[in-house]
Amino acid sequence: MTTILNRYSPSHHGGEPIQRTFHDSDVQGGIRWHPKDHRLVYVWQNSLVGLNIEGGKNSVFTKPTQNPPKNPVWSHDGRKIAYNRMVSNDGNTPTMQIFVIEL
Question: Which of 3, 26, 86, 95 has the fewest beta carbons under 10 Å from its own?
Fold first, then answer.
């Protein structure tokens, strides 16, 4: 039996947790709630993915790469997402870089 790691959140009214992601492979982590809206961002299949909680629609913000995004964080106004990714130029030693996406 294979277990798929998806993400859940507590119910506001008590009871069972609510499943928020529905993928056929593991959510890799980095889940962060939007500062104002019912949205979140997380890492899945080495890409940064956004989820509208109310509509259940996913948006892939980055193309998958060998090194997955890490440490996503929303700006205070929710218009940008910053994240880290290991980058290697010309086969040199990889270094952690900072990227920003404007939504």
Answer: 3
